[in-house]
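Tip: read the tokens left to right.
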């Protein structure tokens, strides 16, 4: 693919502002403005500098329940995951279904860097410089058939390598899903690296989804299967508690979790006295993605 975004640039030689400006101009087809806009009263940042979180924080404070439910469990335990000879089955409503070697997917994709906000539904956040490719490119590579409307994702389930799956915290394997237009959106990526290094096991090696305008649990890790379908696929957290976790799970400061506010968040890594900051509508990406949800009641489609 052509270098549409910041793929030739490294974090060291581009300011996040420049990268975001470039991206926004391409998507919007117009010059980007500065300052704040609003949707339904909630502020969102149009353009601002994003300072990436420390590598240490990004890779030592994780959620990956297959390796335990504590924030430091994944970093402590995920070394047992064998990522050699990884394959991803791409099946369902595609022209070229198959069991693809991770290396072959990588050869066909353009790896670029993108610095995205990351917002967990638990109300902590980070800024992560991902390396990876657009999910759309991988789906086009497999050939999406016209009847497909959703994409289902599945994480590896390997009891011998994943100490956490002994516990029935979730109905394993971890599964997630997107509407096809969300999956094809140019912001949606498959991450294979962080800070220019291969993605660590605890962050979802060798490839995981990143959907920056949705709560973190949508960004499913260590993917082994991607299925194009015409039915809304089941998702792990929705199955576990459908009242608290919906299919869409767009970051929305105006729709609280039944047990806590989503209006603000705690940036991870700033030490004990870090101030909470306001949560942005669609995590700051409303200008790019809000039209995907035009006419939908976001309090019902949470
Ligand atoms: N397979 C799998 N994917 C997962 C999870 C998980 O437990 N298992 N946790 C999710 C949640 S709740 C979050 S916040 C992010 C955390 O990603 P990070 O550890 O890279 O920050 O991964 C998501 N993807
Ligand atoms: Mo999360």
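Filled-in amino acids:
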């Amino acid at each position: 693919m052509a270098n549409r975004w910041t793929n030739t640039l490294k974090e060291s030689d581009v300011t996040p502002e420049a990268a975001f400006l470039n991206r926004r101009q391409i998507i919007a087809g117009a010059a980007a403005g500065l300052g704040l806009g609003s949707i339904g009263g909630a502020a969102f940042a149009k353009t601002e500098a994003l300072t990436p979180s420390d590598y240490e924080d990004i890779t030592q404070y994780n959620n990956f329940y297959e390796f335990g439910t504590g924030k430091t469990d994944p970093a402590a335990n995920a070394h047992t995951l064998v990522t050699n000879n990884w394959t991803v089955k791409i099946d369902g409503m595609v022209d070229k279904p198959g069991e693809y070697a991770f290396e072959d997917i990588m050869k066909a994709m353009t790896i670029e860097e993108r610095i995205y906000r990351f917002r967990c539904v638990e109300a902590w956040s980070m800024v992560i410089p991902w390396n990876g490719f657009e999910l759309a490119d991988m789906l086009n590579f497999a050939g999406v058939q016209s009847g497909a409307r959703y994409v289902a994702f599945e994480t590896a389930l390997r009891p011998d390598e994943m100490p956490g799956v002994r516990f029935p915290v979730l109905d394993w394997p971890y599964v997630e899903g997107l509407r096809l237009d969300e999956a094809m959106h140019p912001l949606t990526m498959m991450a294979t690296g962080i800070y220019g290094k291969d993605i660590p096991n605890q962050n979802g090696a060798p490839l995981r989804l990143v959907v920056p305008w949705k709560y973190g649990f949508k960004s499913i890790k260590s993917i082994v299967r991607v299925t194009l379908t015409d039915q809304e696929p089941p998702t792990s957290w929705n199955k576990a508690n459908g009242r608290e976790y919906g299919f869409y799970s767009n970051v929305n400061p105006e729709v609280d979790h039944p047990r806590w506010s989503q209006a603000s968040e705690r940036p991870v890594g700033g030490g004990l006295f870090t101030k909470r900051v306001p949560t942005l509508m669609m995590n700051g990406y409303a200008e790019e993605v809000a039209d995907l949800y035009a006419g939908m009641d976001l309090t019902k489609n949470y």
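The chain has one domain: 11-293. The pocket of MTE (ligand 1) is lined by residues 62-66, 120, 155, 174, 203, 216-217, 219-222 (CB under 6 Å).
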